Amino acid sequence: MSEPVPQRIGDAERDRAAEYLREHMSVGRLTQDEFDERLTAALQARTSADLEPLFADLPAPKPGQENASTGSPWPVYQAPALPSPTSYGAATSSSSSALQPIPPMPSSTVANVLATVTGVAWALFVLNFIVGPGLWWLVFVPIVLSSIAGQQRQELNRREKLWREAQHRQLPPNS
């Protein structure tokens, strides 16, 4: 009889393997160099067989063992935990062990309204030159609005990035 064909894996399995490797490194089972080497291999893995050698010398958790308790050959979907009303992330300062509050997901309403108003201002400015160049100084309105809209968008992107990082950050275990 022929050997079974290794199953292809997707991004979720590669991410789970990377998470397991981070856990093994955090408890001291892997050095930084070993972790980097194994993480690169895990992120480039195409099949489940590509992941097996990365965890051969490590205890659980490892890929392929998470479904063993259910007895089902099919993966079980686990819904993500609901975020708490006030969530906290790890402190950014090495001197402080207190947890820092995570800002709520920013609203893009102000940025969207400002972008719309800026677009309308540019359209009116162009229309002004088509009709007649009498109000040339109106060029400053869309320029100022564009500048403000750009700053708002940049701040919104920064806050969204911080929010996403905070959502992916794992809280330290309670001691």
From TrEMBL:
Family annotation (InterPro entries): DUF1707_SHOCT-like (IPR012551)
Signal sequence segment: none
Region (Disordered), start-end ranges: 55-78
Domain (DUF1707): residue spans on this chain: 8-59
PANTHER family from the UniProt entry: DUF1707 DOMAIN-CONTAINING PROTEIN, MEMBRANE PROTEIN-RELATED
Name recorded for this polypeptide: DUF1707 domain-containing protein
Species of the source: Microlunatus phosphovorus (strain ATCC 700054 / DSM 10555 / JCM 9379 / NBRC 101784 / NCIMB 13414 / VKM Ac-1990 / NM-1)
